Amino acid sequence: MTVGADFPARLHAWLDRHHPGSEPIALAYSGGGDSHALLCIAAEWAARRLGARAEVLCWRGDKPEHGLQAAARQARHALLAETCRARHITQLLLAHTRDDQAETVWMRLQAGAGWRGLAAMAERVASPVWPQGRGVEILRPLLDLRRTDLRDYLTATGERWIDDPSNQDRRYARIRARQRLGTLET
């Protein structure tokens, strides 16, 4: 999918196909460019039936000295799933992009994963946490888009987003993978 004038309409159609009912749907929002673009598009899509409510989720308790990003990802999924279930929401939108796909496959390859471990993220999948995620489905409508496409869209529509400084911190494996993949493209 390339970004063009019909970009929001194509994502609206994707959402119509994967969430055709009138049940509530949740969206994970961090304030970064990917999730902000998803929020803008989803808000347009839901405008006729919107009853939006924001809820800030906080990861409390001790944090590990090593593997912080993996632990944070697990905690984030658990918090999102618990909140969805408490609100009787069965679908959760996440803003993973084609860049996230490439980074995930690269990291798994570097870790020595077999062919099953090299599978890409799916557009629809059960929540990865148990038992908190029981009955919650993850939807990823942006998997065909590049991160730069989303930022171009936001810039063209006058939207602003937050760039998390940790997204440049080479202590994290995902950031090293992101930067390495970026050098391979040039």
* 3D shape: globular
As laid out across the biggest beta sheet, the strand order is 1-2-4-3
Number of strands: 4
- State the distance separating the first and last CA atoms: 21 Å
Number of helices in the DSSP assignment: 6
Tell me the major beta sheet: 4 strands, mixed
Poorly predicted ranges (pLDDT <50, ≥5 residues)?
none
Oligomer: single chain
Helix content: 40-55%
Order of helices and strands: HEHHEHEEHH
Compact overview of the structure:
It is built from six helices and four strands. Strands 1-2-4-3 form a four-stranded mixed sheet.
Structural write-up:
The chain is mainly α and 186 residues long. Helices cover 43% and strands 6% of the residues. The chain contains six helices and four strands; from the N terminus they run αβααβαββαα. The protein has helices spanning 7-18, 33-45, 68-86, 98-110, 147-156, 173-185, and strands spanning 26-27, 91-93, 124-126, 137-139. The chain has a four-stranded mixed β-sheet with strand order 1-2-4-3. The mean pLDDT is 87.
Features:
186 residues, 6% strand, mainly alpha, four-stranded mixed β-sheet, 43% helix, 6 helices
Spell out the blueprint of helices and strands.
Layout: H1 7-18, E1 26-27, H2 33-45, H3 68-86, E2 91-93, H4 98-110, E3 124-126, E4 137-139, H5 147-156, H6 173-185
Helix pairs in contact: 1-2, 2-5, 4-6
